[in-house]
Amino acid sequence: MRSERLETTGGHSDRQPPPAGAVCTCKPGRLHVLAACGWPDARSARLGQAPRVQVAEVVRRMGGVADARTLIASTSRRKVRTALRRGLIVRDGKGRYALPTAQAAVRAAARLNGVISGKSAAAYYGWAMKTPPEQPTITVPRNRRVAPQRRAGVDLKWRDIPPEHVTERGVTSPAWTVIDCAKTLPFDEALSIADSALRDRDVTKAELLRLAQQIVSTGRTECLRVVQEADGRAANPFESVLRSIAKAVPGLDVKPQVWIGNLGRVDLADKRLRLVIEAESFEFHGKRWLLKRDCERYNSFGLLGWWVIRFAWEHVMLEPEYVRAVLTTMVRVLTGLPVPEPPAQRKSA
């Protein structure tokens, strides 16, 4: 079906929503998933390809770090070079890019004579997380006095950290960073950081468990829960957050990165219920041949008696209640319990 084009001032209607199939004609190619006016990108619609997105936004959605291959595929080489030149992203090793949050934390710690901690320490180690820190997190001793004007723009914590858990560079050790995040962050955020630390082999599960068991103050239960559920097989924060939601659904027991026969590996699966749960990244499914391959793959799962549930990044990160409702209903379907009305279809943003 051909796309309808509206020839109006500025390339679109300023007062009415675009009709189905219409595309924007204003400055194509410069936009995120949708044009700034809310219309689909005209150039992408014509080519049948995924619209280009902003470099820093791709890195943010991937948890604050991204490999060069993914970043270039989602944007372009030119846009990556431009983002580097403008300081929107920084190099974080060979073929790896990150948001500049770690550098800001280093400067803040030096200014306050403090220790980089929490999510800023996780960013320093290059770990992907659900939401990168908006401000540097710096910890100083409990009795330290810091004038309000000096701590402006900094998430300052007053806490005594054992010297053995502070590195020579003034950052909390990898293991302490994971436990610190487990104590202070929501479960889904802490889990994504713990998964990333294990995935990068900066810590071991045994090391984290020993440290969590030594906690005698508030937060011990939360730390033990995060450590026990952490799994380095999770591919990214998107999958980690989805798993954290699934863990709260009664009757559901999912594992990450499960191989199913000779069909390949899935993001999450409950083998008892024969349920596959996929975290669908737009960047990796924006081409026709990828769509065709996924259709064939999911058809094969269905023919083998597996149910497949798929969620977009926006579902998991912005609408967790919808994800939870879908999974809860799916468990009831598979266990023969009465099923309520399915969750309503979400309106596109």
Task: Provide structural commentary.
- This protein has 349 residues and is an alpha+beta fold.
- Helices cover 40% and strands 12% of the residues.
- It has a four-stranded mixed beta sheet with strand order 7-8-9-10, with helices on both faces.
- Strand 7 (255-260) and strand 8 form a beta hairpin.
- The model is unreliable at 1-52 (pLDDT under 50).
Portion of residues within helices: 40-55%
How many E strands? 10
Spatial gap, N to C terminus: 24 Å
Annotation field: number of helices: 14
Q: Give the helices and strands as they follow along the chain.
A: HHEHHEEHEHEEHHHHHEEEHEHH
Mean pLDDT: 83
Structural class, by secondary structure, is: alpha+beta
Query: Could you state the oligomeric state of the chains shown?
Result: single chain
The radius of gyration computed from the alpha-carbon positions, rounded to a whole number of angstroms, is 23 Å
Biggest sheet strand order reads 7-8-9-10
Q: How does the overall form come out from the CA principal axes?
A: globular
What's the layout of helices and strands?
Blueprint: H1 42-47, H2 55-61, E1 65-67, H3 68-74, H4 77-85, E2 90-91, E3 96-98, H5 101-112, E4 115-116, H6 118-124, E5 137-140, E6 155-158, H7 174-184, H8 187-199, H9 205-213, H10 220-229, H11 237-247, E7 255-260, E8 264-270, E9 275-280, H12 288-303, E10 307-312, H13 313-318, H14 320-335
Helix pairs in contact: 5-6, 6-7, 7-8, 7-9, 7-10, 8-10, 8-11, 9-10
